[in-house]
Design brief:
Organism: Aegilops tauschii subsp. strangulata
Number of strands: 8
InterPro entries: PLATZ
Largest sheet: 5 strands, antiparallel
Number of helices: 6
Strand order of the largest sheet: 1-7-8-6-5
Pfam families: PLATZ (PF04640)
Protein name: B box-type domain-containing protein
Shape: elongated
Amino acid sequence: MAIDHASPLALKSGGAATGGAGRDEEAGNQRWPPWLKPLLATSFFVQCRAHADAHKSECNMYCLDCINGALCSLCLAHHRDHHAIQIRRSSYHDVIRVSEIQRVLDITGVQTYIINSARVVFLNERPQPRPGKGVTNTCEVCERSLLDSFRFCSLGSQIVGTSGGHRPRKKHGGVGGGGKKKRAAVKDARSDSEHSCTSTSGGSSDRSSVVQSFSPSTPPATSSSYRAGNKRRKGIPHRSPFGSLIVEY
């Protein structure tokens, strides 16, 4: 799976209401089509009840006009004139191609990915408790690592993040006051460790003097001990006495 480095798609931007919290919430409900939330709550890639005995009975289709749950390929015979979309799967998560969803929905600010040479978006949130090192931008809802030009990791995060009562989470890896506090804490920890090392070294010197009075120290290695430790060289081999005899016939 590859991350799409293209800029966020700016399509069919809906008008945002300005006013109180009630107006923002009402405008948020009117902004999204009626089929979007049921689509995100639907379970796909299950066996179709109506065509359980068929060879292709996996439910990976959804009708935006009927909004009656997941459908299999055989169920589409009853939805010929309707707008149906296909759901795909990547790493046990449901995705949809950008070419299909961008016709009916504004996905501005949602991270897109390249999977099997097709650009897709994820349907639901994918929480990431600990962002990786060096991450400067995360999803405003579930803190999934993102590129700097995007705000959300999925369509579900986009719905939650654009609602009136949602407050974006603080970004990780800030360089402001948090970084200064961390540096000060590291300096304090280093000074404490150095102080503890000096105190323990002083105490150990006193203890070593006491221990040396009871047990003698190990004598230094000498040349004789070094030679004794080496292997003994073999002497000059002697020839067999029969080698000098000449046999005469």
